[in-house]
From TrEMBL:
One Pfam entry name: BPD_transp_1
Source organism of the structure: Paenibacillus gyeongsangnamensis
Compartmental location: Cell membrane
Keyword Transport set for record: yes
Protein name: Carbohydrate ABC transporter permease
Lineage: Bacteria, Bacillati, Bacillota, Bacilli, Bacillales
The keyword Transport is annotated on this UniProt entry: yes
Family stated for the protein in its record: Belongs to the binding-protein-dependent transport system permease family.
Keywords, comma-separated and alphabetical: Cell membrane, Membrane, Transmembrane, Transmembrane helix, Transport
């Protein structure tokens, strides 16, 4: 009797593997489900029931509270602004530099590639970077976030590797037809590089959306602080069913959980639109590298 399937795996082996995967899936899903359910619970139920997974009384008060909270909405708008502008700026800078470094006729190309790799391995540190931002009068400005995170070396290297594998025949044909270098990049290379561009746009968007340390380091104006800083301030309140900050703002557990959902939802909404490009873009960049 054959106890192995067509791939040579026994039923017992497959049962153990799938059982472990299901167990890990449940462990991952449980905290997410708990956060979602807690955000819909009423304050009374949280106080009286203690720990529970599914609320008996569903309420949208936590979400309504956050929407009516001017500090939260201001932080949300700041994060949207930082993410949108920062992603466009970083992708523009990274794409231009990667395209230039992919050309063998560029003078000093080897030295520039070495400098990019060097910054990937070594950093000047937080204090020199802060002093540089301060001397450029960029403190308390969004440009302190955009310029310090304009180009991530790893992203640049992968995109450059993809451009290096671009068919030279297409470029030569475009140049013969009188296409300029910028026109070649804009009209031919970028449309054919959409998977890679979409993939690393998502990488930059996640990086800017999760901005926390750089924000508290360079931004002093509370009206410019992003959502992650505001979320940290909410979660930093001591545990309890009802807390009041020094500003008189109440942060119940339901409100905190709702804030976590608000923080995660934008990226979850964007990701499905880029998913079809994600795997293809990451694979192309890594293989051609």
């Amino acid at each position: 009797m054959n106890t192995y399937n067509s791939r040579g795996k026994s039923p017992l082996y497959l049962t153990i593997v799938y059982g472990l995967l299901i167990l890990f899936l449940c462990v991952e899903i449980f905290p997410i489900l708990y956060i979602i359910m807690m955000s819909f619970a009423s304050k009374k139920e949280i106080v009286t029931r203690g720990f529970f997974l599914f609320p008996k009384e569903w309420s949208l008060n936590a979400y309504a509270y956050l929407i009516d909270n001017p500090n939260f909405m201001r932080a949300f708008r700041s994060s949207v602004t930082i993410t949108t502008v920062g992603t466009v700026f970083s992708m523009t800078m990274t794409t231009f530099m990667a395209y230039g470094l992919s050309k063998p006729w560029l003078r000093g190309r080897s030295m520039l590639n070495f400098m990019v790799l060097f910054t990937m391995l070594f950093s000047g540190g937080i204090i020199p970077l802060y002093l540089l931002v301060m001397n450029l009068n960029l403190l308390n400005s969004y440009w302190s976030l955009f310029l310090t995170g304009a180009i991530i070396p790893f992203n640049l290297i992968v995109i450059r590797s993809f451009f290096q594998g671009f068919p030279i025949e297409i470029e030569e044909s475009a140049r013969i037809d009188g296409c300029s270098e910028f026109g070649l990049l804009w009209r031919i290379v970028l449309p054919l590089s959409l998977p890679v561009i979409a993939t690393f746009s998502l990488f930059y968007a996640v990086e800017y959306w999760n901005t926390y340390f750089q924000a508290i380091l360079y931004l002093n104006d509370g009206s410019k602080l992003p959502l992650q800083v505001f979320l940290r301030q909410m979660l930093n309140v001591s545990d309890g069913s009802q807390e009041v900050t020094e500003n008189g703002i109440e942060f119940s557990p339901a409100v905190r959980m709702a804030a976590v959902i608000f923080t995660a939802v934008p990226l979850l909404i964007v990701y499905p639109f880029l998913q079809k490009y994600f795997n293809q873009g990451a694979l192309l960049g890594s293989v051609k590298g």
